[in-house]
Design goal:
The chain is α/β, with parallel strands linked by helices. The chain has one domain. It is built from two helices and five strands, in the order E-E-H-E-H-E-E. A five-stranded mixed β-sheet has the order 1-2-3-4-5.
């Protein structure tokens, strides 16, 4: 799992606490899933919003962690031709609460 910071300087006030992007392998291990939930739970508690592709396993776990912590979640889409690959690109984000 990789975690990265996304600048929120030009985004809405609900993201002013910061935005963390999350990507993971196409077939994450149980350890990677546990690491994802634990790390994101800590970050959500610190006030970070979460961004991920909910079409992936790690992205779904990120969305659940954000929802459980009542944090904003930004759904990152991918072009259709890349959805079956392990490569994640930042597409049009959709803010969900």
């Amino acid at each position: 799992m990789r975690v990265f910071i996304i600048s929120t300087a030009n985004m809405g006030p609900e993201l002013r606490g910061g935005l963390i992007g999350v990507v993971g392998s196409a077939n994450p291990s149980a350890d990677e899933k546990t690491e994802c939930v634990e790390a994101l739970s800590r970050l959500v508690a610190e006030g970070w919003a979460i961004a991920a592709d909910p079409h992936t396993v790690i992205g779904r776990l990120a969305a659940i962690a954000a929802e459980a912590g009542a944090a904003p979640f930004v759904s990152l889409g991918r072009p259709a031709e890349l959805r079956s690959s392990t490569h994640t690109t930042l597409g049009s984000g959709v803010l969900a609460r």
